[in-house]
Structure formats: C-alpha cells, structure tokens
Amino acid sequence: MTEPLKRTPLYDAHRALSARLVPFAGYEMPVQYEGVVKEHQAVRERAGLFDVSHMGELWLRGPDALSVVSSLVSNAVADLEVGRAKYTVACNERGTILDDLIIYRAGDEEILVVCNASNRDKIAPHFAKAAAGRCDFADQSDDTALIAIQGPLAVQVARDAGAPEAMLSLKPFALTAAEIGGVRVIAARTGYTGEDGFELFSTNADAPRLWALLLEAGAKHGIAPAGLGARDTLRLEAALSLYGNDIDETTNPYEAGLGWVVKLDHDFLGREALERIKAEGPSRKLVGFEMTGRGIARHGYPIVDRAGATVGTVTSGSPGPTVGKNVGLGYVPTALAAPGTVLGVSIRDKVVDAVVVKTPFYKRR
Fold first, then answer.
1. What's the predicted TM-score (pTM) here?
2. Which of these three, 282, 309, 331, is where a domain ends?
3. Do 273 and 330 have their domain in common?
4. Do 9 and 53 contact (CB within 8 A), yes or no?
C-alpha cells in the first residue's frame, strides 16, 4: 500500500494561493502558482519565496559532533567556524555520492546537516550510526520548516519584514539566530537559485506567520511565491547539481565537477577510492550544453557524437528563461567535454544539434 503524502506546514497557504500541487520526495508540494516562467523571472529580477520544508535537518550535538561529521563528508569541515557553513558531499566506500549536503556550524558543539528530502531515509541512519557513542543525534526534519527567499531584492524584503542587521549583513554561507516580526529563525545566506538570499529555519507552528510576513513585506517589491518548477530552471541555469538527476550513487565528485569539495588531507568515508579516481582521472565528465537546433533536451535523452553514436545521457534539461536558450547537463566521455565540442541530443528519434559550453549558463552580476 502506498503511504499517504506528507504535507508541509505551509500546505494551507499554498492552497490559498491556488498552487498546483504534485507529489515530490514523499510530500505534496507546489510545482507552480502563476507559472514557471513568471516565477523564474520574479526570482531573477526581484524576489521569490520558496517552501523547502521537505528538506532534511539533522542535528549532531556534543564535543565530538564536528569530528563525526568530518568523518563522513569530503570537504574540510573540521576547522569550520561557528556561524559558517560549507557545501559538501557524503560518499560511500566506492567514492560515489550518497548525497550532497550543507553543513552548518550553529554552535561550538552544534552541527546542522541539511540533506535532500529524497535521501533523508538513507542519510539520517548513516549519520546516526556514526554518531552512536560519540555524540547526540536528532533527526528534526519533521519538526522544522524551511523557507527560502531568493533574488536581488531578497535583502530589502527581509529588512522590510523586520529582519535584524546581524542577519541582513551575513556573508555567503554564514548563519545566525535572528527574529523576524516576532518569529525566531536560524537564518543562513544560502540558496539553490544562483541568486542572493536567505534560507530561514523555523518551527512548524511559526512557518505560516513567517511566510505571510515575507509576502506582505515583499508585495511592493514584486515578490512572488515560487514552486518546484522555477526552482529547477533557476538551479539549472546556475548549473547546480540535482541529486537523482546529475549526481547519485553511480557518480563520483570528480566526474561531476565537484572535485573542489573533495579535500583528501582528512580521513573520511570514500577517501581511498577518491584518491584512486583522482590519480586515474575521470573517464567521463558532466558538461553543460546549449541546443543549437530546435528542441528541448530532457532527462534521460541520449547524447550522441557527430557520427551518431550514443556517448552519454542528458541528466537535466529545460528552457533557460533568463539566458534565452534551451540548455542541459549530461555526462560525456572526457575527450568530448571541452567547450565548443559539437554533440547531438536524440529527441523522439531525431538528432538535434547541441554544443558544449562553459558553465554556469547564468551568473549574477
């Protein structure tokens, strides 16, 4: 029997805004409100508000909490300062990716690990097992709401909603406890859109009030609630990987373009395998491409070389509303990964021309 879909604390707010709700990672989530392109443009030009309460929040507390986390992730977090965060991946013994994560050091002995909703059932026990006998572990995902405000006017909207200067002046990948209009939050200068903004953690009970405060404060700035559809086109233009599409347990960080989050000078699960992979060099690479022919590349479509032989698969693809081109990501042999390389994408048995380009497709000024 299929388990019923979960609902975030903002479900009623989404219904009130006439959101189109779809199943996603076990939740009933808004995919769009007024339209994907409108919501995408609002985030690029003004500000957008996202409900990302489906994400996983795992807390490790105690003197050994940071070292436990360090033993499971590829990036160097042992020297992470209080109030700072880092993007990283957790790998298995083979050096392939269990999940991509953000690690937040909320206090001297308090570490918050944010994982993908689809991987929570895998990652939570993974960290709990490592923590056993060394530090306290708590999966607080079901008790935590997460709202993201993103866009060039995100700071102004947060200011008008009553956010304190300590939050407004945060540097990228920094966090602080704050209060917005009487709602207590942990505010982080992080996001998944390629734009500036904040991710705000609150209790479930406070989430509807916080959502309403931000929408009200942002009304004069043209803020828009944004769904999963816009979130996907925004992150693709910024060439941010999506777990389950661009990275998974069949991919390693080096071929996925994530070698920068691998620091081999500390001991962590998968390090030995990654040392070998780095020494040998990846046989394939995740590349960005633009469609030069008429067609939209979609997840799973074959990528072909100039001779028509299948050489890879599209992992992500869609129109890029800001860049004005149809773009995508996919794995190809390393010899075909250089920008300017001509490829093709097989769309309904017709090969449409594409060219490898440097990513990200979009970068804010």
1. 0.96
2. 282
3. no
4. yes
